[in-house]
Amino acid sequence: MPLYEHVFLARQDVSSQQVEALVEQFKGVIEQGGGKVTKVEPWGLKSLTYRIRKNRKAHFTLMNIDAPPAAVAEMERQQSIHEDVLRRLTVKVEELEEAPSAMLQKRDRDDRRDDRPGGGRGGRFGDRDRGDRPRRDDRPRRDDDGDGIGGGDE
After folding, report:
1. Is 12 within a domain?
2. Are strands 3-11 and 36-52 parallel, antiparallel or unpaired?
């Protein structure tokens, strides 16, 4: 049977339990069609690049599917008429990855970044301590002749 990676986006105001119920519903459709879902990865609530049906965020879920095309088409049809599903994408692949997807690996990296000194606030200089530098107005002023006193050529 063909192998597919399928991602769908559920509305932001749907709870995680309702997203799990959606996954179970769509798994049932695949299994009724003679296929199986080998892996489900909930990626969580993420911000969208642009609004989709007035939603700024969505629950992302990845499903690895081993099923005939008719079962996948029926699942997509049901998702297209379901009011809680914003978008869906199914890609036919040569083989399914059993390891965690890149999205889950990215979330692990983000979690580790928060363990660094400074709380993971990034940037090039964000975690650098400024130390006991004098305030800018307390520093001696430089001028052209180097005596530290503004004025002229005396």
Report:
1. yes
2. unpaired
Query: Rounded distance, CA 12 to CA 86, Å?
Result: 10
Name the DSSP class of 83.
T
CA 88 from centroid of its chain's CA atoms: 16
| Residue 109, C-beta contacts closer than 8 angstroms, at least 6 positions apart | none
Q: What is the pTM of this model?
A: 0.66
Q: Pick the closest to residue 3 from 68, 87, 76, 78 (CA basis).
A: 68
| DSSP letter (8 states) at residue 131 | -
Q: Which two tokens mark 137?
A: 């107005």
CATH of the domain at 12: 3.30.70.60
Average pLDDT in the chain? 82
Closest CA to 75 of 42, 40, 31: 31
Q: What share of the chain is helix, strand, coil (3-state, %, to 5)?
A: 30, 30, 40
Specify the number of domains making up the chain: 1
The answer to whether residue 143 sits within a structural domain is no
Cβ neighbours of 72 (radius 10 Å): 21
Condensed to tens digits (0 to 9), the pLDDT of residues 82-106 reads 999 999 999 999 988 887 788 877 7
Which residues on neighbouring strands pair with residue 87, listed in sequence order?
A: 9
Written as one letter, the residue type at 79 is Q
Length of the chain: 154
